[in-house]
Structures are given as C-alpha cells and as structure tokens.
Amino acid sequence: MIRLAVLLTLTATAGAADGLMGRDVSFGSLAYDDRAAPIFVGQRHPARVNGAVEYGLHPEGAQNGWDIIPAIIDIRDQRIVITYPDVPVDTFPVLEFNGYVLDFLTECVLFNGAWQNLELSTEPLPEDGIFTEGSQLFIDVSGVEYGPQTFLTIDLDVAPCPLS
Known about the structure:
It is a single chain. This protein is mainly beta. It has one domain. It is 9% helix and 38% strand. It is built from one helix and 13 strands, in the order αβββββββββββββ. The strands form three sheets. Strands 1, 2, 3, 8, 10 and 11 form a six-stranded antiparallel β-sheet that branches. Strands 4-5-6-13-9 form a five-stranded antiparallel β-sheet, with no helix packed on it. The chain starts with a helix and ends in a 6-residue tail after the last strand.
C-alpha cells in the first residue's frame, strides 16, 4: 500500500511538471492593421523560462513612429504576468493587433489553451485578445490602459512536450 501511494505521488508530480519552466522562448512586440504589412516588428528577445523575470522591455527605436512601451514580462510555469511599473497611465492604440508574440522553441504543439485571468488582472484584454498558432502565443493589448498599477495575467494550459 505504501509503495502504491509513493508511485501515485511521483506520477502526479511528473504530470504537474508539464509547463513552461526550463523551456526556451523568444519574445517580441508586433503591431499591424494588415498582418502582411506590419507597422512595428520588435526585436526578438530569447530567454529560458526560470524563476526570475524573463523580460524587461525598453524602447528599441522607432519604426513608422512606433516604439516599445516599457514593460516587465514574467513567464511562470502555467502563467504570464505583464506589468508596466515605470510608465505614466495611458492607453495602447487600437489596431487589428498591437501586442506581444511569444515563440516557444519546441517541435510540438505547446498549448491546449490560453485565457486571461480576470481576477488577477486590472484591465481586460480585447475580445479574442489571446490566441495561439502552434507554439506561438499572441497577446493583443490594443485599446488596453496601462500604467504603474496595471497587471495583465494570462493563464495557460500547457501540453506535455519534451523540453526544448
């Protein structure tokens, strides 16, 4: 009986490990009204998901009059938290897409689902503001107010994949 309990505990722990920790990710900003002709394509920033903040975004240089709004992107095992602690309150311009793209560098489909955790967010994202394409996660902040008290929290259902 005791061995069975230990086996069940180990199995449950192994299943819970299916998340983003230890995975390689590339992050960048993107803005467009026409996806074929983006207004802004941010630099790609590689990182390995760990227990620390992965990205502290800063201006990258204007493209078509657009640049990065400073933000902190903290990727956790099953969640992404975006904050804007060092900027005055303002609103992101409304476009077809104005936001962030995370590319998880893996050969398998990574997401079973992604949604905004409204209880841990201070601002709602646009309807259909979170979507995935394979191992890419898109977060549209078009029309969202940002500032020092803004928290955007995205919860993820991550598929079990081999670590990248």
